[in-house]
Amino acid sequence: MLPLITVKQFLNDLRRQKLRSLLTMFGIFWGCCSIVLLFAFSKGIGGAQLKSQKGMGDNICIFWPGLTSKEYKGLPKNRNIWPVVDDIVLLKETARAIGRISPEFRRWNQPIKYNRNITRSPVIGVWPEFSIMRNLIPQQGSRFLNELDMNERRRVVFIGNILKNDLFGAEEAVGKQIIIKDVPFTVIGVMKEKKQNSSYGGRDSRIAYIPSSTFESMYSNRYLSNFVLQAGERYRMEDAKQEVYNILGKKYQFDPTDQQSLGTWDTSRTFEFLKNFFRAFNIFLVGIGVTTLIAGAIGVSNIMNVVLEERTKEIGIKMALGAKKSMILMQFILETFLITGLGGVLGFLFAWLIVSLVPYAGLDDFIGIPEVNINSAVLVIVLLGIVGFMAGIFPARKAANLQPVQALKLF
Fold this sequence. Notes:
The protein is built from 14 helices and ten strands. By secondary structure, it is α+β, with helices and mostly antiparallel strands. Strands 3-4-8-5-7-6 form a six-stranded mixed β-barrel, surrounded by four helices. Helix 2 runs antiparallel to helix 9, helix 9 crosses helix 11 and helix 11 runs antiparallel to helix 13.
């Protein structure tokens, strides 16, 4: 019975104080909407950035030649450490923490030709497992380099999707021959389009990949441009990196603690930084939404105080007729919950509508795909409950503590 009376009284209050009630509910509406939208968009943006970061590779470390910065066993510092393919073979055979590894030979701005179409692009010599580490996924009907290509030094090439469009346009590329520096190569694969926001030698979509054995014979290269490794499943990247310094330090006689002997880029650290950044960003955004809700709660508390002043006589009559304090208290708290609940539901629905329409704007590359998740829904429900209770408890206690004679006299 009390809830029905409360709803009727709530509707009467809305009719009497239309503008004040609407402005109060708007504060709750906007606070709820802000929390949901901030959660949804931060998750979308964070997901897009992390996905783009993984476009270059997941949990990989790139090593470059370096200069020793420490004297070691009577040898001077500033010695060049320039790995070769045999070093990569040694690391693969002896290092326990390394899951995958591949050398990289690189030549920039190589002329590549198909019929009358000519372009320039980097040409890179790698091992087959390079594709797994660097997320080079072949399109349907194509493949990456394999062990036979390596062993037989085949003249085959895997090309990025943009390079394919530059050379072939809409024409099928797999099985066709292209000319790289006056040498014919057969296209065996085309990379599936991917998002990539970082690189260390140009975007993968514009690169031609050939077997490292073919690259060595074609360009007579001995020293590597760099090499890439991925830690094993049960090992940390720090373990894999230290094994590299230990093994190559023993071979080239440099201090294994000398981090300058080989240049490194540990992408797992970048990935972890981005995760922590977006976690902190989420907390910051939620703080903004909570602040808006608190402002709305103050508005709710104010309007309930106004309602208390307008209904003082009514409260006095009810209490004179035997109404208990608990009934008056619950009536005011329920009205407060109705105001916050209505504003919160409308805010949540409005935010959900916006999130549902955003994917049609075609902004996925910039903001990802926002989504309303269960965490934001639970947070909004909890916050609305707290806001409703805190906004209603003080006017409700004031109303419940009125004496019947005092209430009638005040009126």
